[in-house]
Each structure stands twice: as structure tokens, then as C-alpha cells.
């Protein structure tokens, strides 16, 4: 396997780890994924505003509904993943689609939101890390069992949910 192929494999694993951390409500681990990078969304009041590390964990903890089984009862499914590693091998970018499915006692299993990720990665101490993840929400369904705010309004203020905010 070439170095480029190893990079792509490691980056995809990182992208899938994000989904797993969200679905299983492992918010501290999720924050760690952004300890060297930032997370933002087109749903934010200012998409250039971003959060990292512990603020990511605090935001997800404050805005995602954890159900009796300790999870969000969601499955984030990523597809159409395209990764491009820079020639120097120290950075990369990716784009992908996502669909989130949810099923709870009050909600039949169904897709609740879909969109795209635009990602940048950096090689930090030999490990691929998120440098930036932009979440682009394209379609919104029944989110009442998932979030504590109305995602369709597109007016999220990260600082309202951060530990320091």
C-alpha cells in the first residue's frame, strides 16, 4: 500500500469515527477529534464562526437529545467520499454526503437530515486530524427527537452552548 493510500484509509477512518462518536453520544471523544481543528456549519449565524475541542463536546452535549439507551438513536451514514491528499503528504481535503437516520419510541425509523461535509485534514505528529469540517445541511426532516433547537432556522449561535459562552 502506498503512503497516499494509507493516508486516504486513515482519513476515511477519522471521518467514520466522527459519525460513531455522535451516534453513541461520546461527546468528549468527539471534542478530541477537533482538538487540532475546527467545526462549523452553514446553519450557524456566521458560518465562518467555528468551535474546537471542548467547545465541540459542550455544544453536542447541550444540543443533542440522549435517549434512555445512552445514545442519540441515530445512524450517521457517510457516502460518496472523495479524499485528495496534497502532493507534500501533510494535508488533505475531502468531500462527502451524509444522511442521518433516527428511530425512537416516538419516531419511526426514517431519514431526518441530509447534507454534505467539506473537510480539511492535517498530519499532526504522524496522525491525521481534522483541520476543519464544514457541515452543509441540504434537507431537513423530523428532527424533534434529535436536537434541542430548530435546525431549519439556520441561526445557531455556538457561544450559546459552549462552556465558556
* SS-derived structural category: alpha+beta
First-to-last CA distance: 45 Å
- Beta-strand content: 35-45%
For the record, the count of structural domains works out to 1
Question: What kind of sheet is the major sheet?
Answer: 5 strands, mixed
> pLDDT under 50 segments (min length 5)?
none
Number of helices: 3
Order of helices and strands: HHEHEEEE
Number of DSSP E strands: 5
**What is the general shape?**
globular
Mean pLDDT: 93
The spatial strand order of the largest sheet comes to: 1-5-4-3-2
Give the helix level as a range of percent: 10-25%
Radius of gyration: 16 Å
CATH third-level topology? Nuclear Transport Factor 2, Chain: A
Strand and helix layout:
Layout: H1 3-23, H2 27-33, E1 38-41, H3 53-63, E2 74-85, E3 91-104, E4 107-124, E5 127-140
Parallel strand pairs: 1-5
Antiparallel strand pairs: 2-3, 3-4, 4-5
Helix pairs in contact: 1-2, 2-3
